Amino acid sequence: MMRTILHGLGAVIFGAGLALPPAAMAQQPTQSPPSVNAFDQAARDGSEAPKSGGEKNAQKPRAPQLAPAPVQGSTAVPGWNEPPDWGVISETRQYASVPGIDTARLIQREGREWRAFRNGPVTHYGGWLIGIVFFAIMLFYFVKGAIKLKQPPTGRLIERFNAVERASHWTMAISFVLLALTGVIILWGKHIILPWLGYTAFAWLTVVGKNIHNLVGPLFLFAILVSFLVFVRDNLITRVDWTWMAHFGGMFSGKEMPSGRFNGLEKAWFWGGMTLLGLVMAATGLILEFPNWDQGRQVMQLANVIHGIAAVLFISAAFGHVYMGTIGMEGAYRAMREGHVDEEWAREHHSLWYDEVRQGKRSEKIVTGTAAPAAGDD
Fold first, then answer.
1. What tens digit of pLDDT does each residue of 226-269 get?
2. d(Cα 214, Cα 173) in Å, to the nearest integer?
3. CA distance 251 to 257
4. Please, what is the average pLDDT of the chain?
């Protein structure tokens, strides 16, 4: 009897389970998909194609999704790479197993000041100074033109620079150009080169430029020392040089002032440019190039700023020297390239030196014969 009741109850439960899914489906509204004829009619009329019930539900307005705010330290936050200010902890000396003057210091606060000054005033105002000096010299050239001889050349040549003087000068000049170009890449490259060259090529260019800069730097220092010893005797300042400087050599009056082997402006470049700025550049460059001398980060940051400022002044002053030695004065470039100048060139531009050569007071001699004129560079 009990077995019969259980069999009947199980049949009722099984039948109810089979009947529930069809009943639930019957309670939902049926959505028939659009017919093929409806799509064809819409295509002929140019109207919008019919949509199914699912697409209608998908087009219901939704609440706007707000983007999550970037967390502190994310690269989306300006200044994300600024180190945290840990107050006393960052300035307190800690224990470090690695020896060194700064290895036990967690964070150096002066590094932020150095970076702001280097990427700010040094880069900004230094770029403006170099640009203004360059365009001022070009404007002067287009207005004034090159300084030419007033009288025709005689054809007799005078030795202006011997082989040692020319070798030391060209070593210094070529190394200076390489240092200036690579320095421009390092200091201003991300502003004037990176935007059009791209990150990958600019990274390669900067790495190559940095290595050239580090290798050529000691050669530049050696050339400065040799050039100083070679040219210092003829660059001692005299009363004649002050007179020449006061009249700016007669460049604007049309009557050139007498001078020795080097005039006042050339001596100013020798002492202020090549000697003073050159030695400052060399000393600070050595501090930066050899950090294994155990100098602190603050010393290297100060050297980097002084190095950048001196470089800007050096390049700006070099524009004037290069201008007068190339296109600014006819015959000046040939003097350093070949070592000789025409007798008329010496008489007009360095009359006191020319008189000493004629009187036999100097080692330079007048080359007689049928030498070709050397007044110009053509």
1. 999 999 999 999 999 998 988 887 777 767 888 999 999 999 99
2. 16
3. 9
4. 80
pLDDT digits (tens, 9 = 90+) for 328-360: 999 899 999 999 999 999 999 999 999 999 888
Phi-psi region of 45 (alpha: psi -120 to 50; beta: other; left: phi over 0): alpha
The model's pLDDT over 280-329, given as tens digits with 9 standing for 90+, comes to: 999 999 999 988 787 888 899 999 999 999 999 999 999 999 999 999 99
Provide the residue count of the chain: 378
pTM equals 0.71
Backbone angles phi, psi at 105, to 5 degrees: -105, 120
Contacts of 231 (CB under 8 A, 6+ apart): 165, 262, 270
Q: How far apart are alpha carbons 135 and 137 in whole angstroms? A: 5
Domains, the chain: 146-367 (1.20.950.20)
The tokens for 31 are 């959505």
Distance between CA atoms of 285 and 176, rounded to whole angstroms?
A: 13
